[in-house]
UniProtKB/TrEMBL annotation:
Domain Glycosyl transferase family residue range list: 202-354
Keywords for the protein's UniProt record, in alphabetical order: Transferase
Classification of source organism: Bacteria, Pseudomonadati, Thermodesulfobacteriota, Desulfobacteria, Desulfobacterales
Coiled coil: none
This protein's name: Glycosyl transferase group 1
GO molecular function: glycosyltransferase activity
Gene Ontology terms: biological process: lipopolysaccharide biosynthetic process
Signal peptide: none
Gene3D superfamilies per record: Glycogen Phosphorylase B
Source organism of the structure: Desulfatibacillum aliphaticivorans
Length: 381
């Protein structure tokens, strides 16, 4: 009879939407018992723990330290968590964030952050606190991934780029995110505008950040409107700092009366399929990603996509989109214009994108993750 394992999961710093979605997919859709795992101990903060359903094999821990300032959380992760893992009988820890400073062994670490590694991206942050934070984070991530007994990457692109800094990592798994079922069965999509009076609705779903280039997209849509294309642009997602300033400045120039740009701000996750289904074209202008949920979700809805040619995007979208340079408005405008003017192409790439999206399921992601953790533990025994 195979030995039954006890696994620890450190999700203490899962704050971003993608990190939260990954954890929920792992717990909700996985079957760890199929991989000789009899019990999983999960450490996370209370608000997130409360959204995780009860499972017969799951034990949730919500340390008070995780409600405290970041320095207290880090102290707990470094010194308290290893002891708590041992007391719970955990044989291996799964770090859901490569920024972990927990030194419990053996370990499997998941890489979800590319900003510290993407060539040229950190220059945007100057020499201030944000740049220093990213440099420190890169050092911590290098150590966490390099010292782990197993490392999980979301894309081949991320694995290749990060190993240029960590050196070759021996035990690697490529396990992409899944897509929620709400995107695979969205509301009925609106029909393509039948006349020039009805505007073509473009949408970009992503928090406003320096590497997301929303202000460049605004310039591109403005240029297309001047060429006679009746386009509207919906920007979905919050944001702050310098990126918001750049966006506001561009809006004051390109669309001071907000005739064609609508800022929807933060939209609850469960409402995103409705927003996408009410759109005609999806634009994704990020220059730094690991494996973007914001791209695979409109793929599942079946939207024609104009997409950045950077990072893992060509690996994920393949030939099911029209690519552009996200920092050049003319390039974005050309890609969107190509989609707008060619009905046959629109249908072809939207159908291909939807077909490609079928491979991204949380069941696959979760079970491949549990299998890899179990296999890594067996190798270390």
């Amino acid at each position: 009879m195979n030995r039954q394992h006890v696994i620890g999961v450190d999700a203490s710093r899962n704050r971003s939407g993608g990190a939260v979605a990954h954890l929920k997919g792992l717990i909700n859709k996985g079957s760890p018992e199929k991989y000789n795992i009899r019990q999983v101990h999960l450490w996370t903060y209370k608000d997130l723990a409360d959204t995780i359903p009860e499972k017969s094999w799951l034990v949730k821990h919500t340390p008070v330290a995780l409600e405290k300032p970041l320095y207290r959380q880090l102290w707990w992760q470094r010194f308290q968590l290893p002891m708590e893992l041992g007391e719970a009988g955990c044989e291996i820890v799964f770090n859901t964030d490569a920024g972990s400073i927990c030194n419990f062994k053996p370990s499997v670490t998941l890489s979800q952050d590319m900003l510290s590694y993407e060539p040229g991206q950190m220059k945007q942050f100057g020499l201030g606190k944000a740049r220093i934070r990213l440099e420190v984070l890169k050092h911590v991530q290098n150590n966490s991934l390099g010292s782990a007994d197993g490392s999980i990457f979301l894309s081949q692109y991320a694995a290749d780029v990060i190993q240029q800094y960590t050196g070759r990592i021996q035990n690697i798994a490529l396990i992409p995110h899944g897509i929620s079922g709400i995107f695979k069965n969205p509301p009925k999509r609106k029909a393509w505008p039948s006349n020039k009076i009805e505007p073509i609705e473009c949408v970009y779903v992503s928090p406003t950040s320096l590497f997301k280039h929303q202000w460049v997209v605004v310039r591109a849509i403005e240029k297309l409107r001047r060429q006679g294309h009746n386009l509207q642009l919906k920007l979905v997602g919050g944001g702050g700092g310098k990126a918001i300033e750049l966006l506001k400045r561009q809006l004051s120039i390109s669309d001071p009366d907000r005739k064609f740009v609508k800022e929807l701000g933060f939209v609850p996750y469960e409402q995103l399929p409705e927003v996408l289904a009410a759109s005609d074209v999806f634009i994704f202008a990020s220059s730094c990603e690991n494996m973007p949920n914001s791209l695979i979700e409109p793929m599942a809805v079946g939207l024609p996509i104009a997409c950045s040619d950077r990072g893992p995007m060509p690996e994920i979208l393949s030939d099911a989109g029209i690519y552009f340079d996200p920092e050049i408005d003319d390039s974005i405008a050309r890609a969107v214009r190509t989609i707008v003017k060619d009905e046959e192409l629109r249908l072809r790439i939207s159908n291909k994108a939807k077909a490609l999206s079928e491979q991204y399921t949380w069941e696959r992601c979760a079970n491949e993750t549990w299998a890899f953790i179990s296999d890594t533990l067996n190798r270390s025994l």
